[in-house]
């Protein structure tokens, strides 16, 4: 009778181990998905920042080139 209980206990442990493996695998998959999402969002933010800086730079460059072409009497 004890050998039957022992077999059932081993089977329970194996089942629990498989379930734990599935839980860990699901958690890893979810973590990777969150990290990919965070990376994508960060890249989008960086691109927006670069675009904004480029616009500001172009505005400054065009402002400087406008003052260079104006006669001194118009700059004041």
UniProtKB/TrEMBL annotation:
Record bears the keyword Transport: yes
Positions with biased composition (Basic and acidic residues): 38-55
Keywords: Hydrogen ion transport, Ion transport, Transport
GO cellular component: vacuolar proton-transporting V-type ATPase complex
Region (Disordered) location: 38-76
MF (Gene Ontology): proton-transporting ATPase activity, rotational mechanism
Biased composition (Polar residues): 58-76
Top-level lineage group: Eukaryota
Keyword Ion transport included in the entry's annotation: yes
Recorded family membership: Belongs to the V-ATPase G subunit family.
Oligomeric and partner information: V-ATPase is a heteromultimeric enzyme made up of two complexes: the ATP-hydrolytic V1 complex and the proton translocation V0 complex.
Protein task: Subunit of the V1 complex of vacuolar(H+)-ATPase (V-ATPase), a multisubunit enzyme composed of a peripheral complex (V1) that hydrolyzes ATP and a membrane integral complex (V0) that translocates protons. V-ATPase is responsible for acidifying and maintaining the pH of intracellular compartments and in some cell types, is targeted to the plasma membrane, where it is responsible for acidifying the extracellular environment. Catalytic subunit of the peripheral V1 complex of vacuolar ATPase (V-ATPase). V-ATPase is responsible for acidifying a variety of intracellular compartments in eukaryotic cells.
Name assigned to this protein: V-type proton ATPase subunit G
């Amino acid at each position: 009778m004890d050998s039957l209980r022992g077999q059932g206990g081993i089977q329970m442990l194996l089942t629990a181990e498989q379930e734990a493996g599935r839980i860990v695998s699901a958690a890893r998959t979810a973590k990777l998905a969150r990290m990919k999402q965070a990376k994508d969002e960060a890249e989008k933010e960086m691109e927006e920042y670069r675009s904004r800086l480029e616009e500001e730079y172009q505005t400054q460059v065009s402002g400087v080139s406008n003052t260079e072409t104006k006669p001194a009497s118009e700059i004041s």
